[in-house]
Design goal:
Layout lengths: L2 E4 L8 H8 L1 E7 L4 E7 L2 E6 L2 E8 L4 H8 L2 E6 L7 H5 L9 H5 L3 E4 L2 E4 L4 E12 L21 E13 L2
Antiparallel strand pairs: 1-10, 2-3, 2-6, 4-5, 5-10, 6-9, 7-8, 9-10
Bound molecules: flavin mononucleotide (FMN).
The site of flavin mononucleotide has 19 residues, from strand 3, strand 5 and helix 2.
Length: 170
């Protein structure tokens, strides 16, 4: 494979730029349709919790990815190189309920430790859910943030252990 395993502390990437500017792809396997589904995500974070390296993902309940995450604990979070950014036009707006996003984007599936990911990625995080819960209106200390939820579609937050990171070789 053209990837090296990297320890989280050796990762030489600005996580703020990566998440906010390059965006993530949450990749889940869809057993029912026998294909991988990818969803663009740009809200989340990575850090330390319970002495583990973790990522935090925020997924609205209407996403197909939400259905898939309720059924599978291990999945991947991928970061595409700039030349594949256009794939987010599909992955960030169309639902895997209706579209085979792998075909629609021309990306390719890859297997990392039994978890599906995107072969063209520059970074692949193999993650495992540790905790999930739904945000609630009463939890907001800053009322103006509720503008993000006109339909009361509060995100589910998933706290996932980062089991492994694979970085594309130069
Ligand atoms: C730049 C960008 C960032 C996004 N970030 C998130 C996010 O963090 N959480 C979320 O629930 N949806 C987010 N979305 C919306 C989903 O990617 C979009 O609704 C997608 O079509 C859902 O796909 P799915 O139904 O196959 O899961 C984002 C979309 C874009 C374009």
């Amino acid at each position: 494979m053209d990837f090296n395993a990297v320890h989280p502390k050796e990762l030489d990437t600005n996580l703020f730029r990566m998440i906010d500017d390059e965006w993530l792809l949450i990749c889940c396997y869809d057993e029912e349709n026998g294909r991988e589904n990818m969803m663009t995500a740009s809200w989340g974070g990575m850090g330390i919790l319970w002495n583990k390296e973790v990522c935090f993902l925020f997924v609205r309940p209407q996403r197909y990815t939400h259905d898939l995450l309720e059924k599978q604990d291990r999945f991947s979070v991928c970061v595409l190189p700039e030349e594949y950014k256009s794939a987010h036009k599909v992955c960030g707006s169309q639902s895997g309920r209706c579209v085979d996003k792998m075909t629609a984007t021309g990306l390719h599936e890859a297997d990392f430790d039994g978890v599906k990911a995107v072969a063209e990625s520059k970074l692949v995080f193999i993650v495992k859910q540790l905790y999930r819960d739904d945000l609630i209106q009463n939890g907001f200390r800053e009322e103006s943030l509720l503008k993000h939820y006109p339909a009361d579609d509060f995100h589910t937050v998933y706290v996932c252990e980062i089991e492994k990171i694979f970085q594309k070789k130069d």
